[in-house]
Amino acid sequence: MAENEGSMGTSMHGVTGREQTFAFSVAASPSAPTDSTMAKFALPVDSEHRATTFKVFSFAKPHMRTFHLAWISFFTCFISTFAAAPLVPIIRDNLDLKQADIGNAGVASVSGSILSRLVMGAVCDLIGARYGTAFLLLLSAPTVFCMSFVADAQGYLAVRFMIGFALATFVSCQYWTTIMFNGKIIGLVNGCAGGWGDMGGGVTQLLMPLAFQLIQLAGATPFTAWRIAFFIPGWFHVIMGILVLTLGQDLPDGNLAALQKSGEVSKDKFSKVFRHAVTNYRTWIFFLLYGFSMGIELTINNVISGYFYDRFNLKIHTAGTIAASFGMANFFARPFGGYASDKAARLFGMRGRLWTLWFFQTLGAAFCIWLGRADSLPIAILAMILFSLGTQAACGATFGVVPFVSRRSLGLISGLTGAGGNFGSGLTQLVFFSSSRFSTATGLSLMGATAVICTIPVAFLHFPQWGSMFLPPSKDPVKSTEEYYYMKEWSEDEKTKGLHEGSVKFAENSRSERGKRVGNVVLSAPTPPNSTPVHV
Amino acid sequence: MAATGLLLGLILVLGCFSEIGVALISFSSLQTTLVVTATHPQRLLRAGEDKITVRWGLNQSLPAGTDSAYKTIKVQLCYAPISQVDRAWRKTEDHLSKDKTCQFKIVKRPYTTGNQTLEWTIERDVPTATYFVRAYALDANDHEVAYGQNTDAKKTTNLFEIQAISGRHVSLDIASVCFSVFSIVSLMGFFFVEKRKGRKAQQ
């Protein structure tokens, strides 16, 4: 393919971080997209063709269609992963389970995706989010249908473990929306996609018992009816997988394989992507942080219904309704966290985003402490609602920052963060809710206290070009540019080959993270993020 | 947001009130005035197929008039201690409204003097466990006033085991395999068709 041959001067790009960076991609070939192609999209776009506005009720391709495919795929997987939880009273009788069997299956259901989220991160970077999502949906559908074969505790554990792999759609969902939407609104978009997907954990607590009742009414015995009920999430997987393959596309300009062949997007090497992900210390801070926002949220999905049932002697459907409302709060809480992150960025830049994250996560954890100590039902419900709002907003705010940690290894870092969430869930369930050393109430308070402490590392997230919670950005004229930070991931050799073009565009667009602060003096002239650059 | 919280709070408060109306009767306050026996063809029974013959009646050695308050008899299938280990949802509590020992109703009938017999086919939703049979005598307000069971006070004798149905069906297994195969085949199909289209476009 000849498109890139005419790109003279590519070896000079990104070195000083000052030159206009789009001339080469426009001059590459006569048929390459010019800026007039921005007009062919239904939504206004930036130079990377990412949408700069978010129209929730639209299904226009590619941006809004991607958004809806991404979040509904993730929602489907949340439904199937936690589908067993509300039916446990029936399942435990059918399979003769003991308390330990149920607890272990709960840990297994969130453990499988620790690994699959990492793999999905790499998959998205290498073959695109569309295939990643569709592969996972269609390959995990058989595991959901497998519930009809389960006959004992081991089988139950194995199937819940395998279904849990599907939670990796979180990574493909966030990655896919990050590719399609501009950095200024990415907090809100990621928050909506993530939050509405997480809602599946709440919806399943209402959907599965309803399906079970209807199937029983149709004449099945309870021990058969719950198995049939699992076909519903299974069908959702198949339907969504096919929709993603037929209606989705990887990037605003088309599909990854086609764009790689035409040379517009370069193929990357996994070893490089991996190295840049794991050597960036920010990745590991997010691994820890997310374990104590999403991690404790997943743990609560598994333990809260039983907690209310036992502590306050509620009826099982009442306890189930409370469990559902915890998960359903995700509908507005997580998007709100992302939106607050975006708003804070507009005023204070990246520092605003970091403070927003710290604030919500600490607040949520504090209410978790209160939940464990609440002695009366109304206070416990109030504490739980505030806890859910704080923690879920923190999840949204987390993914307002993660897209800026790296451009080259975005998928893998999203995957590692997501894996940290599941790891945190498995760990907290194991430490606080599996032994009889302390009651569930004490476990909740201790978990909240641990989360407060483990949120402090947000203060250590430092970006040389934007600063951190307490430190200002670097004064060095070279190091304080966005280009320097994102170009660090590419070697000179790779730059001469022009592999870094995506990062260049991203760096330009990420100047919005400087906020409105006066005194943020940098030697290169800042370019407003959305304007069409003048070609040199 | 606030509205949802309020609505939820209202539902829960109402739910609580509906439980307060239940009287706190304790099991230890009940007298053992009934004699219950249960016979079965073999020790291991199959749910949905085998039958248990249950006989109950007032203990004849008690003074007349003991059963003056009895209006209804409720016969239940109850878990033996061995089936309650590590299973808090089957726990025995003294307060009958919280007691989870007896979860399956065999029969509920108006009380008559003299012995009663019933041949009961084990329901298909009974789980695999070890059981005994207990009968409660209820008064006009549907409160327990006396009981009898076919085992001793420590619940160690005359226990029987029930084997539950698996809940699995061949038709369900086949449907499951069909849908799984469809899922994988459609994935492979799309993948190869797109790969072929990509190769054709390159040529």
From TrEMBL, chain A:
Name where it's found: Membrane
Q: Where is this region: Disordered?
A: 498-536
Q: Which residues cross the membrane?
A: 69-90, 131-151, 157-176, 188-208, 228-247, 284-304, 316-333, 354-373, 379-405, 412-432, 444-463
Task: Please report the record's description of how this protein sits within the membrane.
Answer: Multi-pass membrane protein
> PROSITE patterns from the entry?
MFS
Question: A single GO CC term, please?
Answer: membrane
- An MF annotation (GO) of this entry: nitrate transmembrane transporter activity
What Pfam families does this protein's entry cite?
MFS_1
Where are stretches of biased composition, namely Pro residues?
Answer: 526-536
Going by the UniProt record, its keywords in alphabetical order are: Membrane, Nitrate assimilation, Transmembrane, Transmembrane helix
Bias regions of kind Basic and acidic residues — which residues? 498-516
Q: Which family does it belong to?
A: Belongs to the major facilitator superfamily. Nitrate/nitrite porter (TC 2.A.1.8) family.
Name of protein: Major facilitator superfamily (MFS) profile domain-containing protein
Automatic annotation (TrEMBL), chain B:
Molecular functions (GO terms): nitrate transmembrane transporter activity
A GO BP term here is: response to nitrate
Q: Which InterPro entries does its entry note? A: Transptr_NO3_Nar2 (IPR016605)
Entry keyword GTP-binding: no
**Can you list the GO cellular component terms from the UniProt entry?**
plasma membrane
Please provide the record's keywords in A-Z order.
Answer: Cell membrane, Membrane, Nitrate assimilation, Signal, Transmembrane, Transmembrane helix
Q: Which residues cross the membrane?
A: 174-193
Residues annotated as signal peptide: 1-18
List, alphabetically, the Pfam families matched.
NAR2
Q: Which family does it belong to?
A: Belongs to the NAR2 family.
User: In UniProt terms, what function does this protein have?
Assistant: Involved in nitrate transport.
Provide the protein name.
High-affinity nitrate transporter
Q: Organism, per UniProt?
A: Gossypium darwinii
